[in-house]
Design goal:
A: Formate dehydrogenase/DMSO reductase fold, 2 strands, B: 54 residues, 0% strand
Chain lengths: 442, 54
């Protein structure tokens, strides 16, 4: 029924099966929407936030998905500014994932502010001394950039592309995409950094407080760095999950390996900086404020923050994936690649967790105990909502838009194999750009 | 947000914050205006952009 909307030369499941899948995701989405409406109608008393936890599950989810969505700005930067041609085969998907992550982050913020009708106050009555104002400015503008980057893909739908104006618009937007990508990279640098800066400037919270350069604490740079490092890992992870779900190979190995290699080196350099930061914080910054490292990772009643969380964040979620990704074996071995990209994503989510929630849990007064918090079902449902929304948008985009330029070549329809072999032979005769040794082998 | 808002002060913080905001918005606005106008012009002229994008 919808075959005329599906890109040419690719195979998709039946419409009935597709509707069934979308309906299953839709149920989860509707539960989230119901919880969201409860929060808007009845107020933030629907959450378990309290005086100790002004930031809670939502802010962690925001920071985590913004970090994971960093693949869009960093891949865009590599593709359009640095000019790595191979990444043209994954940039569409990176943009789509970024679009989902940032729209989800804005949606969660719209719930978190309690009165979304006053959301525009942050622009109109901006507090120019707050890092969160910078985050709000950059986040909104970068979402506009992602929308601009996503629109040409929508316009390339088989039916829409037949309309001359939309065809020309899509073409023109591609022509100037480098300008939008550069603006996006500029905006991302600042909002990713400022999210880290928020924790770093809390001198009343020694767990988060860091020294730094001028007005920027070290966490400013670490957050940007980690998002640029792990964002591409998340893009690869979602690509791999999509390949498993569709039963097709969608992106060539050389593209994945190249992105994994860049991500691995970014992650390794980030981990070196992170280790230095952690060491200096543990031995100088925190003691100068009257705290020892052990006090942050105590097992006192009411606390479940032991040293295990530091190990999970730094070693399992940082050093291990970095070492896997910088080796050729790690990138070419399927299991090792799966483990590395998953651990990297877990690592950055753990980092955002400790910088949002452990910061608030640690007692700062001698008479204080550890503060505890467990989210309400409304908070959990609205946090899961973006997952269902993301699955639906990815499914719709995959079905109706040419998201993966290499899909036809990698999955020829019956009768098109000869044409594909010819294309592969032509590709081998005309190599594009300089690839990594692993990519060249592939 | 605007110089005519009652809270507006001509100090460095306002200039840097709002300067950055308007700089980014101007690039996005000008870029999209160019794309739309050129698409309208190309369409009126009867031409179409070339095949592969990405």
């Amino acid at each position: 029924m919808d075959s005329e909307l599906i890109p040419e030369g690719v195979q998709r499941c039946s419409l009935g099966k597709f509707i069934l899948w979308i309906s299953a995701c839709g149920v989860v989405l509707l539960i989230g929407v119901y919880a969201m409406i409860l929060c808007w109608v009845k107020g933030l008393n629907q959450t378990n936030m309290n005086d100790a936890y002004g930031f809670a599950l939502w802010i962690w989810a925001d920071l985590a998905i913004i970090a994971l969505g960093g693949g869009a700005f960093f891949t865009g930067f590599l593709r359009y500014i640095i000019g790595i041609k191979e990444l043209k085969n994954i940039i569409n998907y990176a943009v789509l994932i970024g679009f989902i992550c940032y729209s989800s982050a804005l949606l969660i913020l719209a719930i978190d502010i309690g009165q979304p009708l006053r959301g525009w106050f942050i622009f109109w009555h901006a507090n120019v001394h707050s890092m969160l104002t910078e985050v709000a400015f950059c986040l909104s503008c970068y979402f506009a950039v992602l929308t601009i980057e996503y629109v040409p893909l929508v316009l390339e739908n088989r039916k829409i592309d037949k309309i001359p104006f939309f065809h020309n618009l899509s073409h023109n937007m591609h022509e100037v995409m480098a300008v939008f990508a550069a603006t996006g990279a500029f905006l991302s640098f600042f909002h990713q950094g400022s999210l880290g800066g928020v924790a770093g400037v809390l001198f009343g919270r020694p767990f988060g407080f860091r020294e730094g350069v001028l007005i920027w604490p070290w966490t400013f740079f670490l957050f940007t760095w980690s998002a640029a490092a792990v964002g591409p890992c998340f893009t690869i992870l979602i690509t791999k999950i999509t390949e498993v779900a569709t039963g097709k190979k969608l992106v060539k190995d050389n593209v994945i390996e190249l992105l994994a290699k860049i991500s691995g080196w970014m992650l390794l350099t980030y981990m070196i900086a992170k280790l230095i930061d952690t060491w200096y914080w543990a031995t100088h910054t925190a003691p100068a404020l009257g705290f020892t490292l052990a006090q942050f990772y105590t097992s006192d009643p009411g606390s479940w923050y032991g040293y295990w969380i530091l190990f999970l964040e730094v070693v399992l979620g940082g050093i291990v994936p970095a070492l896997i990704l910088v080796t050729r074996f790690g990138r070419t071995n399927k299991l090792a690649l799966w483990i590395a990209i998953t651990l990297a994503c877990v690592g950055v989510c753990t980092n955002r967790w400790v910088m949002v929630l452990q910061v608030l849990a640690v007692p700062v007064m001698t008479f204080d105990g550890w503060f505890t918090y467990f989210p309400s079902w409304q908070e959990i449902a609205t946090t899961i909502l973006p997952v269902a929304y993301g699955a639906i948008l990815i499914s719709l985009s995959y079905r109706y838009l040419p998201v993966f330029p290499q899909e036809r070549e990698l999955n020829p329809l019956p009768g098109q194999e000869t044409e594909t072999v010819k294309q592969l032979e032509e590709d081998q005769e005309e190599p594009v750009g300089k690839l990594s040794p692993a990519a060249e082998t592939a | 947000m605007f110089p005519f808002s009652f809270e507006w002060i001509w100090d460095m913080s306002h200039i840097v914050f709002h300067g950055g905001l308007w700089y980014a918005l101007s690039i996005l606005g000008a870029g999209m205006t160019y794309c739309i106008l050129k698409a309208a012009y190309d369409t009126a002229k009867g031409g179409e952009g070339h095949g592969e994008h990405h």
